[in-house]
Amino acid sequence: MAICVGIIDLGEQYSEMFKSYSNKVKVVWELMGETVEVDGEQKPRQLSRDFTISSSQKAKLREFISTWVTKTFSDEEFAEFDLFDLLGRACQVSVVHNETHEYANVNSVMAIPKGFPVPTTTTELIKWDMQAWDDEAFAKLPEWYQEQIKKSTEYQKDHAPETTVEVKAEEKECPI
């Protein structure tokens, strides 16, 4: 059982694998009843997954949302769906570990079965929208989210320093 505690618009990101740019979103779930030690303190265990924002019927994001909200979307309905509406929504997640059990990945998401108690959380929900940039809200994001966002074309265009640094080659005498 889990709750969506974060929807982070990562902006347009470059994929080394596909050698192209695409808009990405990070979905963060808090796993109920699981904790992890962070800086000597027990905190709720969270997992996340990045998705390409695509309305294609074969897109992973669309598949995840459809099984989560138990709805088959028409193209028009999916285009109008607000991802931020998933914040605070409970679900079941299927987690798959890699061979070394070093990494846990969210493999799929399903709705909570009818009649099951719906979990709740006291974790502050994270909503980040690149189109509604807010310096104060950005500063509150965890550093690893900030670093991902800083790689986006939007950040580079609108928020990266515009100072150019001139690098000169150091002149050395050739020993020969």
Q: Roughly what is the average pLDDT, rounded to an integer?
A: 89
Q: Pairing-aware structural class of the strands and helices?
A: alpha+beta
**Uncertain runs:** 171-176
Distance between the termini: 71 Å
Radius of gyration: 20 Å
Main sheet specs: 6 strands, mixed
Count of all domains? 1
Q: β content, as a range?
A: 35-45%
- Helix share bin: 10-25%
Elements, N to C (H/E): EEEHHEEEHHH
Compute the number of strand runs: 6
Shape: globular
- Number of separate helices: 5
Explain this structure to me?
- It is globular and about 55 Å long.
- It is an alpha+beta fold and 176 residues long.
- It has 5 helices and 6 strands.
- A hairpin with a 2-residue loop joins strand 2 (20-38) and strand 3 (41-52).
- The chain has one domain (2-158).
- It has helices at residues 60-69, 75-80, 135-140, 143-150, 153-158; strands at residues 2-15, 20-38, 41-52, 90-97, 104-110, 126-128.
- Mean pLDDT is 89; it is low at 171-176.
- 20% of the residues lie in helices and 36% in strands.
- Strands 1, 2, 3, 4, 5 and 6 form a 6-stranded mixed β-sheet that branches.
Question: Could you give a quick summary of the protein structure above?
Answer:
The chain has 176 residues and is an alpha+beta fold. The chain is built from 5 helices and 6 strands.
Write a concise keyword list for the protein shown above:
alpha+beta, 5 helices
Summarize the SSE layout with pairings.
Blueprint: E1 2-15, E2 20-38, E3 41-52, H1 60-69, H2 75-80, E4 90-97, E5 104-110, E6 126-128, H3 135-140, H4 143-150, H5 153-158
Parallel strand pairs: 1-6
Antiparallel strand pairs: 1-2, 1-4, 2-3, 4-5
